[in-house]
Amino acid sequence: MTIPAHGEHYGECRRSALARLYFAHERLAIGAGTLVGLLLAWEAFGRSGLVDPLFLPAPSQIAQAGWGLSHDADFWNDVSVSGREFLLGYAAAVAVAIPLGLAVGLSRRLQYMLSPFVDTLNAVPRVTLLPLIVIWFGIGIWSKVMVVFLGAVIPILINTQAGVKTSEARFIRVARSFSASKLKIFSSIILPGTVPFIFTGLKYGAGRALLGVVVGELYASTAGLGHMIAEAGNTFQTDVVFFGVLIFMATGLVVVAFLDVFERRFERWRPDLH
């Protein structure tokens, strides 16, 4: 029997520890590796001279533009304006859509009353309503808040309603056979089963809300990141345009990551029905 040397044993332990660390964070490792590889290839292509930086600036040039903007007070004002528009519109959509979606899912008559309006708003592109919204609310912050609200409220409402409709009928029948109250059935069966649908709607609604910020500011605005992107595009500052787009992308990823963490907390609250 051969006894491994101390160095070999240490090397094997280190490799096994690295393997455990990798498999514990495999998704992050693969995603980060792919992103780094893409950025390096993009940087090499941008620096090769095969393409004009006016059309495709290198990541380092975009970072340099972002560094310059970070020292500009107007940029932080644009960030503040867009942030307020997103937070106000998205929060209002959540506050309206979740209770209303639960109510519509629970009441057939309420569904008959509101379905034509919900289906119409879902079918009509919100962009077509922008001229009316600007006329009603002006070019200030509230017109963009309304665009964000309209973009986010429908997907959250529809997903919440769908979650109520897919509640397990057999569990509800069992609860009723034990004379459970409607409130008990709602809190212990319907609401826990609806939580995944609500978070799906929240994630989808967040993307639509960010889209509402951009579209609203591109159409009629004097401040905001969408306005900054439009101005940069008009003056051929492609690096600034890319940096503005990256800010919206990063914001969307952060919001979805936050919702994922919040959803996992709710998973501990949901009872095991299987």
What is the global morphology?
flat
The helix/strand series, from N terminus to C terminus, equals HHHHHHHHHHH
Task: Report the portion of residues in β strands.
Answer: under 5%
Taking all Cα atoms into account, the compactness measure Rg is 25 Å
CATH superfamily of the largest domain: MetI-like
Largest sheet: none
Query: Per CATH, which architecture of the largest domain?
Result: Orthogonal Bundle
Number of contiguous helices: 11
- Determine the structural class based on helices, strands and strand pairing: mainly alpha
Kindly report the CATH topology of the largest domain: MetI-like fold
Indicate how many domains the architecture comprises. 2
Query: What fraction, in percent, of the residue positions are helical?
Result: over 70%
Average predicted local confidence, pLDDT? 80
In terms of per-residue confidence, which ranges show pLDDT below 50 for 5 or more consecutive residues? none
Query: Terminal Cα separation, in Å?
Result: 51 Å
Which properties best describe this structure?
274 residues; mainly alpha; MetI-like fold; 2 domains; 11 helices
Describe the structure.
The protein has eleven helices and no strands. The chain has 274 residues and is mainly α. Helix 3 (59-69) crosses helix 11, helix 6 packs across helix 7 (141-165) and helix 7 packs antiparallel against helix 9. It is flat and about 65 Å long. The mean pLDDT is 80.
